[in-house]
Amino acid sequence: MRQLAQRAKAAARSLGHASTKQKNAALNAIAKELLLAKDEIVAANALDLADAVRDGKNDAFLDRLRIDVAACAAAVRAVTKLDDPVGKVTRAWKRPNGLRVKKVRLPLGVLLMIYESRPNVTTDAAALALKSGNAVILRGGKESLRTNSALAEAIRRGLDGVLPADVVQLVPSADRAQLLALLSLDGLIDLCIPRGGEGLIRFVAENARVPVVKHYQGVCHVYVHAQADLKKAQAIIVNAKTSRPGVCNAAECLLVDAKVAPKFLPAAARELIAKGVELRGCERTVALVPQAKPAAPDDFGREFLELKLAVRVVDGLDQALEHIARYGSEHTEAIVTKSKPAAARFQREVTASAVMWNASTRFNDGGELGLGAEVGISTSRLHAFGPMGLEELTAQKFVVEGNGQVR
Questions:
Q1: pLDDT digits (tens, 9 = 90+) for 57-107
Q2: Which of 168, 201, 166, 204 is nearest to 183 (CA)?
Q3: Which pairs from 297-304 meet CB under 8 Å and 24+ separation?
Q4: Nearest in space to 74 (alpha carbons), one of 106, 35, 103
Q5: Which residue spans of the chain are classified as CATH 3.40.309.10?
Q6: Quick one: pLDDT at residue 227?
Q7: CATH 3.40.605.10 spans which residues of the chain?
Q8: Distance (Å, rounded) from C-alpha 318 to C-alpha 166?
Q9: Among candidates 5, 4, 3, which has minimal Cα distance to 210?
Q10: What is the DSSP letter of 362?
């Protein structure tokens, strides 16, 4: 693992000085190789999926594991259209003594991506790391090892002759001892970005000697305010819960103002239940929706990652804010209301990487917010907060020009 990281460090030095034209050429070559290798990638993915089915994995897990090669290639090509952050001057000023000061973006260096059952992270992370001038070490989970290996081989073929192949390296096994070795390589690895369940994130954070971007859970709420457009609110919660229940920006809890609950909840519940959602509600929810199961104490603040939804009737904005402060994970929170003052207060007081007003929680995504692909969503507030796109994969240095000044 040390040798792998040393190769990544050497490759990162070369990549950090590559032109935008070179990086885009490599990305286009990678996209081409992915499409050429589609049959072998799909075959590898089929074997991983068969193992997951045999092991009794649920539908949400299988959805995360399933690969769409054309979509992966398109996402890689899309990164070529994004502005290159490396060398970008974000601010410039002149000091009274004549010094000219600039802040300029530069790559972080070597990234370590640790992820579980989503093989599309392999291509997304490789593309974003490459465009932002970073080498990346990819360590996927055992559930997607065949798929990740096939993807990584295609990526490295695309790099051949354009940029050093070692700017993208896949750890060849899911051995935990190798993971621990990588997490100890302070000085060779500049940032670790784990993506997966809470257990994985905590394991990484507790064992790492390298900086870690944390994202423990996606406990996302949709709050239907007393002045909500109920038709919009129903469409938003159905989308937020059911479009992809196994992802981190899916809604896990619905909060409904008591003033609109009698009208809103029965209709919204009918549609949610029709789509297979199991509702787990507070006493007032169950009184309005008899099909709902009484919520257990730990259903609030829980990341279900499947077609289950906690529901609570609240007495106004204050109680909604208190609930979110207690149970939220600082990932994504949404309010549905026609009241600008209520929305403004919600957006001001809620601490989350994205706060939505009259929009689904599912929009907290790099592509949906205009960043292109993302390597993950940070909820740690250090170094980045929210989706991590190209700019979030850079740091800034001060570049100072003088004319003989001394202090």
A1: 988 789 889 999 999 999 999 999 999 999 999 999 999 999 999 999 999
A2: 204
A3: 300/253, 300/327, 301/219, 301/326, 301/327, 301/328, 302/219, 302/252, 303/198, 303/217, 303/218, 303/219, 303/248, 303/252, 303/329, 304/245, 304/252
A4: 35
A5: 220-363
A6: 98
A7: 2-213+388-401
A8: 53
A9: 5
A10: G
Tokens of 350: 């809620």
Q: Name the token pair of 224.
A: 């239907």
What gap in Å lies between CA 229 and CA 29, rounded to an integer?
48
Cα gap 31→179, rounded to integer Å: 28
Q: Place domain 220-363 in its CATH homologous superfamily.
A: Aldehyde Dehydrogenase; Chain A, domain 2 (3.40.309.10)
Q: Is the dihedral of CA 41, 119, 128, 115 positive or negative?
A: negative
Tell me: the pLDDT tens digits for 295-339?
999 999 999 999 999 999 999 999 999 999 999 999 999 999 999
**C-beta separation of 257 from 314 below 8 A:** yes
Fold that domain 2-213+388-401 belongs to in CATH: Aldehyde Dehydrogenase; Chain A, domain 1 (3.40.605)
Amino acid at 286: V
Q: Report the chain's mean pLDDT, rounded to a whole number.
A: 95
Strand stretches in 171-329, DSSP E: 191-195, 220-224, 251-257, 278-281, 293-294, 308-314
Burial 339-352 (b: 16+ CB within 10 A, else e): eeebbeebeeebeb
* pTM: predicted TM-score of the whole model, two decimal places: 0.85
